[in-house]
């Protein structure tokens, strides 16, 4: 049965990667994964936003991709070492810091794809999404982080399990099994989508047999991160159900 996360939304899916930044983002003060970037994606007509979360020194789950603040703010400190209030001040002129709970409250029409980047963020993320499980997909490269967030949502009283996509180890197993034409249903049990790069380390990850294996199990296939229109069209023609992209505005008019 299709998870409500997918019900009533356009297909193929367009997932705005960390929101939407101006095409010339080098000239913009707007940062990724901020309220401003999400508002821009929403204004462009996006239904899905892909984002990432980490825990602050206060234990709050905030939407940040990197383990440190170096790339965004030139600050070498780890996100986990910084208090939430200080982070909020740092983000004031760059779109506005969001916690997981803030994002869900501020954008009630958006469906969120949340990548749990740190173990410390799993519990507060699950707790925050419990009341919004119908419009949240939980994923992580780490199976431990993913399952911990799902367990936290259940413990917090979620009426249903959030949608979910597996981590790296499950993707590797699925790729091997599908390539050998071996049964892969066990790998995909309890899974709603798989999210993969087209290629990784010289290996073709997105393949016709992988797509067929996923679709036989009723599982969607999303490919990241694709910004070229011709590549988007080619992947959709090859069976992809969704594209994670920095150019959601372009994707919406392409696929």
TrEMBL record:
This is Glycerophosphodiester phosphodiesterase. It comes from Microbacterium soli. Residues 12-255 form the GP-PDE domain. It comes from the Bacteria. PROSITE patterns: GP_PDE.
């Amino acid at each position: 049965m299709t998870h409500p996360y997918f019900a009533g939304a356009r297909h193929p899916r367009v997932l705005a990667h960390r929101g939407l930044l101006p095409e010339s983002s080098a000239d913009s003060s707007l940062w990724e994964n901020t309220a401003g970037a999400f508002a821009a994606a929403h204004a462009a007509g996006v239904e899905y936003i892909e984002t990432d979360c980490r825990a602050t020194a206060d234990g709050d789950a905030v939407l940040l991709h990197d383990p440190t603040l170096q790339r965004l703010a030139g600050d070498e400190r780890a996100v986990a070492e910084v208090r939430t209030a200080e982070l909020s001040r740092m983000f004031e002129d760059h779109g506005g810091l969001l916690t997981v709970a803030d994002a869900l409250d501020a954008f009630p029409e958006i469906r969120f794809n949340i990548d749990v980047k740190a173990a410390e963020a799993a519990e507060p993320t699950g707790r925050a999404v419990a009341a919004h499980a119908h419009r949240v997909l939980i994923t992580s490269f780490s199976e431990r982080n993913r399952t911990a967030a799902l367990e936290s949502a259940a413990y917090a009283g979620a009426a249903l399990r959030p949608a979910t996509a597996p981590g790296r180890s499950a993707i590797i197993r699925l790729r091997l099994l599908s390539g050998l034409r071996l049964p892969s249903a066990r790998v995909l049990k309890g899974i709603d989508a798989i999210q993969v790069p087209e290629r990784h380390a010289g290996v073709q990850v997105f393949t016709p047999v992988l797509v067929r294996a996923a679709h036989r199990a009723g599982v969607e296939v999303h490919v990241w991160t694709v910004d070229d229109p011709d590549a988007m069209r080619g992947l959709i023609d090859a069976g992809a159900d969704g594209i994670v992209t920095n150019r959601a505005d372009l994707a919406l008019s392409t696929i």
